[in-house]
Fold this sequence. Notes:
Domain MOSC: 109-250
Order of helices and strands: EEEHEEEHEEHEEHHEEEHEEEE
Helix content: 10-25%
Protein name: MOSC domain-containing protein
Low-confidence stretches: none
Pfam families: MOSC
InterPro entries: MoCF_Sase_C, Pyrv_Knase-like_insert_dom_sf
Number of strands: 17
GO molecular function, one term: molybdenum ion binding
Amino acid sequence: MLGVEVEQLQLGPGGADGDRALALVDVGTGRVATAKHPRLWRSLLQCSAAPEGAGVRITLPDGKVVGPAADEELSAFLGRPVRLVAQRPDGASVERPDPLEVLEHGVEAEVEAPTLEIAQGTPGGSFVDHSPLHLVTTATLDHLGVEAVRYRPNLVIATPPGTAPFVENTWLGRDLVVGDVRLHLTLPTPRCSVPTLEHGTLPRAPHAVRGPMEQNRVEVTGFGVLPCAGAYAEVAVGGSVRSGDVVELA
Length: 250
C-alpha cells in the first residue's frame, strides 16, 4: 500500500520501527500479497496505510478507514481472500514477474510469476523485500524523473548539484553516518514492476523501470544482473534519523 512521509525514524537491526510490520497474505496460496504481481495486487496501491498506536490505519480508495481487523473488507476490495498478519512466516515468499514482461504484455497479462523469498537479508519478522533499509538519492530520482514514492525508500538523500545519477552504486561496501545512525551499504536495489503502476492519483510510469533497465543494469550478488536504482543497507549502529540530518560517507 501507499506509505507515509515522516519527520523521524527510529532504526534498529531490523530496519525502521513500524516499517512493513504487517502484510496481507493470500489465503489461497499462503504468499504475501504485493503489487510486484500487478495482475493480482496492483489495487493495493490505491490504499494507504499509516501507523496508529500499536496497529495500523488503512484507508481505502473511497475514503473508508479500516483497522487491523479488516480481513473481510480487504478481501472484498481485492477480490481475493486475504488475512492481515503481523509475523512473517519462515520462508515467506511473493510472486514477482519480470518487469520487462509486464511492460511488454500489460498488467492484465498472465505472465510467468516466479516466487521469491523475502527479507533474506533482514533479521526479525518484518516484511521488507530484502534488506533492513532502502535509500535513494535525489540525483538518481531527478535524473530518472521519478517520484520517490514510486520506489518506496526509507530514506531520500538530497545530493549536491552535479552529483552523478546512480551514485549509490559507488557507496556499496561503505558506511553512511546519518544523525545518530551508521548504515552499511550492501547491495544495489533491483526494481520490479511496482514503480510503473498507478500510485493513488499518480498515473502509470513505465519510465520508472525502463530508465534503470537502459542505464543501470548492475550485478546484485546472489540475484544476477538487474535494473537497479538506490541501495540497500544494514543498520550497523541504530538510533534516530530526522529529516534534515546531514549525511556523511565514512
